[in-house]
Each structure stands twice: as C-alpha cells, then as structure tokens.
Amino acid sequence: MRIAADIRRCLGCRRSLICCAWALGAAVLLGAAPAPVTVNWQTLQTLNFSIPQGQQKAAALQLDGKRVSIPGFMVPLEDDLDQVTEFLLVPYAGACIHVPPPPPNQIVYVKMDKNTKVQVTFTDPILVTGTLRISTVQSPYGDVSYDLSGESVVPYQPQ
Questions:
Q1: For the segment 55-76, what is each residue's pLDDT rounded down to a tens digit?
Q2: Which tens digit of pLDDT belongs to each residue from 18-41?
Q3: Domain check: are 28 and 96 in the same one?
Q4: How far apart are CA 157 and CA 17, in angstroms?
Q5: pTM
Q6: CB-based contacts of 15: which residues, under 8 Å, 6+ apart?
Q7: Bridge partners (DSSP) listed for residue 86
C-alpha cells in the first residue's frame, strides 16, 4: 500500500513538474516578439492610396500592426551624412532624389525606436525590421502610405 501511495505522489509531482515546465516555456514563447514577416514591394503596392482603406481588400492591409522586415534603399531625412534616426525606405536606389518620387504605396517612412541612429547608405540595399502601420505621412518627397517603427537596420543579403 505504501509503495502505491509513493508512486501516486511521484506521478503527481512529475505531472506538476511537467505542467510547470510547459507553462514556463509557453510564457517565454508568448513574451518573445514574433518573428518578422518578410514583405516585398509587390505586396506593399497592393494598397490603393486613392481609395479609402475600408473599401479595399489589399494584401497590404493584413500587415498593419505586424512586425515585418522590408528590403530596400534609404533616403535620409536628416542633415547628418553619417547616421540618422529617420529615413524613407524605397524600392530602388536614388528614388526621391532629383527624380519624381515613387507612389505613396512604394515609400515607407521609418523612425527608429529609442532614437537609435543607423548608418546612412544611399546605394547599398538594407533590410529594415520593425512594426508597420498603414497611415498617410507627409514627407519632403511627397505622401507616404506606410509608417514603420524601426527596430534594426542591417545590410540586405538576398537569399
């Protein structure tokens, strides 16, 4: 009898331990930021900036509030030629400079979180990760359809 009671007690402890470990693992996973979704410019282009958002079924609408990574090129919005906290992300090098700008659905306004400064590059592709919002932003280069709270900027390496 005593052995059976000891076995039941150990099984109960083991179940409790497993349940605690599972709950702790779930809490860690839920607390971690979700992996970013890599977004291409064709998806961003589905947003029709001339139609109210409520009347659209654009694939880009599904990205609002999501953590994303977008490759592109930087157009700095600050005078510092070395590092900036705000810039436009565009699909091709030289966009917005001495040429007509891309349409609003092909420009992302990036403001780095915590005023983090990132290295300025005009010709090298970058990959920007952060939370994307669909909103009209006025820039010196025209209207912008997307606003991104930047977490990181790294050189873009096509896969």
A1: 888 999 999 999 999 999 999 9
A2: 443 344 444 344 556 779 999 999
A3: no
A4: 44
A5: 0.77
A6: none
A7: 111
Same domain as 44, residue 14: no
**How many structural domains comprise the chain?**
2
| Same domain? 22 vs 47 | no
Domain, as residue range, for 122? 37-155
Residue 100's domain is classified under what CATH number?
2.40.50.870
Quote the CA–CA distance of 153 and 83 in Å, as a whole number.
12
State whether residue 90 is helix, strand or coil.
strand
Beta-bridged to residue 52, according to DSSP, are none
Is 69 within 8 Å of 38 (Cβ atoms)?
A: yes
Kindly state whether residues 13 and 70 are assigned to the same domain: no
* Token pair 């990574």: residue: 69
The token pair that represents 28 in the structure block: 């860690």
- The answer to whether 119 and 83 have CB atoms below 8 angstroms apart is yes
